[in-house]
Structures are given as C-alpha cells and as structure tokens.
Amino acid sequence: MNSQNDFVIENGVLIKYKGSTSNVFIPDNVKIIGDCAFMGCEYLASVVLPEGVISIGNYAFEKCEKLESVHLPNSILKIDAIAFSGCRNLTSINFPCGMKCIGRWAFNGCENLADIDIPESIECIKEGAFQGCKRLADENGWVIIRDCLYGYFGPEEFAVIPNNVTDISDGSFKNCHNITSVVIPDGVTNIGDSAFEGCENLTNIVIPNSVKNIGMGAFADCKSIDNVVIPDGIITIGQMTFLNCENLTNIVIPNSVNTIDDLVFSNCKKLESVNIPDSVKLLGFGAFENCEKLADSEGWLIIKKCLFGYFGEKNDIIIPGNVAEIGFRSFCDNENIRSIVIPYGVTTIWEYAFDGCKNLESIYIPDSVEEIYCGNAECDKLVVYGNTGSYAEQYAKEKNIPFVVYQ
Fold this sequence. Notes:
Blueprint (H helix, E strand, L loop, with lengths): L6 E4 L2 E5 L5 E3 L6 E2 L12 E3 L6 E2 L12 E3 L6 E2 L12 E2 L7 E2 L21 E2 L16 E4 L2 E5 L5 E3 L6 E2 L12 E3 L6 E2 L12 E3 L6 E2 L12 E3 L6 E2 L12 E3 L6 E2 L12 E2 L7 E2 L16 E4 L2 E5 L5 E3 L6 E2 L12 E3 L6 E2 L12 E3 L6 E2 L10 E4 L4 H8 L4 E3 L2
C-alpha cells in the first residue's frame, strides 16, 4: 500500500511522487497529475489513476523504464506532451471513451506498447504521439493511426507509403538506415519534424504537390540524397530541413516559398544549384552555411544581399558592395584572414560572424552598421576602426576591443 506521505498534493494537483513501491494507487483527492510528477521513477511498474483525474501533465511519467501498465479512469480528458515518453516496457494502457486529446510525443519510444484502442471521442492526436511504438506496426511494418503514419519497422529498402496516409508524423522514419527510396502518396499534406532525419542511405524521394508543410529537420542528415524538388504550395522551409545533406547537389524551390528558415541547407557542401525565387523574403541564420560550391569565383557566397560565407584565400579582404548583412558564422574559424573592410550599406552583423578568426587584426565598420550581435571570441589581436560617435565605437567599448578612429 502507498502511504499518503508518498505524494505531494496541492489543490488537487499531484506535484511529486516520493515513494519507492512498484505498484502505485494514486489517492482519490487527485484531479491532475502534474508535470514531471513521476518522471524517472526507477521502481514504478504499474499505476492506477482514480476516478476524477482529468489530465496527465507534460513529462509526467517520462523515462519510467520499468512501467508496464497504466489504468486510466473514465474521467480522463487529456494526456499532455511527452507524458509517457521513454517508457519502453509499457505494454498496456486503456483510453476511455470521453477522452479528448493525446499530446505530442506522449508515447514516444514505448517500443512494447501493443493493442491500443483509440475511441472516437479523441479529437486530436498530436505529432509524434506514437513515434517508436514498433509493436503497434501492422504485418508490413507500418504504424498508422487515423491515417497518420507514426513509424515504419519493415525490412524493405524501397518503401511505398500506403495510400490512406495523409500525415507523416514527427520522426516516422528517423534513423531508418535500411531505407534507400520512399514513395509518398498524393494526398499527404504534412511531413513532420525529423520525419526522415538520419536516413543516411536514402537517395530518392519525391514529394507530391499535396504536401503543404515540411517540418523542422525533416531530411536532416540524409547524407545520400542528391536531388530534391520542393512542391508548389510550400510557404516555409523549416529550420534544419536539409541540414548535413552532404551529397545534395540540386534543389528546386517554388514561387510559393517566402521563408527559408535557420540552417536549412547548412553543411550541404556539394550543393551547386539552387534557385531563390523573388517570393522569398526571409533567409534565416546560416541558411546556406558552408555551401562552398554556391560561392562565386572570388569565394563570396552572397544570396539576397546576405553574406553567408567567404571561401577565398586572401588575407586582406574587402567585402563586396552589394552586401547588406554579414550572416551568422560567415567568417567563423577562418584563420587566414588578417583584415576586413566592411562597405557602407551593411546594416547588420549577425552572431558568431568572426568567432575563431585568430589572426584577424583589423576590421573597418562603417557608419551604416546599426546592429552587431557577434562577439569577438578568440580574436585576441583585433582592433576596430570606425568613426567617432559611431555604433562601431560603442560596440568596441562594450566588448573591450581597442578602437581607432579611421583616417
């Protein structure tokens, strides 16, 4: 039996379980299981929630690795994000009629969870809710719940997603190393965060025009993929979508795209062809970081007036006059550079632009610069040149960098 002292309860919210018994019966006066209440309980094997409990909070039972069974009361309405994530020995849980919502990644990594029944009362099952639940797979290896794909555990290298799927949820194919080709059916509207992340042997994928959203890191670390056509209708290419796709050589971006977010093509070192339509109004931090083959003959990688990198060999450089922003990590760790002249017209210098430039001795910053977000890490020899009363002078004083009035 559990002692009342095993539970910290405030106004009907179970804040923390302090006991060490394996089979837990939660007291009748509890209405809400609070965030992190049982997180990491190493002894917990089963838990029974009393009638009256209406919700289970974020991370409530996360990484309770010995937890095998959970009994939910008819009063339960929702299970919040990551509530049972990492409960790898959880085999059974009941979802009562009347329940409304299962939160994001709620059962992520519950690899032994089997034979669940989703009642019609559940109105929302959020992204990644059953990611990694391989015992929920059908005979072909697909985990599909209500037309949403949560995972693939089949042996096939050439995967054809079933036609009834409309949503590819977060992490559905994450680290599926055997996959070389995927056919996405017309009718899929969403590719979730990290959906194909780490599919290092994936070489061929066609994204149908029905897709309207591609999530963050969807194809990150797909090291073998070489060509991608973004479908018309996509508005935003999310953060890190193609991060570290080191063999990607060509990308086609449609006129519907207005945002290429942070680090989208970072470290795509073989990318040599990309069209940036006029519709694109926002390029995120490091969107083309280390995309050396996109640089011009002088080594400058400039897209829409933003400098993403310099791959030339000069020690003393003058940044081209068509640059308006010096981008995130654009000169980072370049130990060859000795001096930099920034042209009038540049307004912003972003984070880490010159970090690690150990031999950088001087930089001229014009009066047009209004914002500087970078530090001067490892730039021990640096002297800033500019005009009296300029933002450059203010910045140098704030960072304790020697400042010289430019003559």
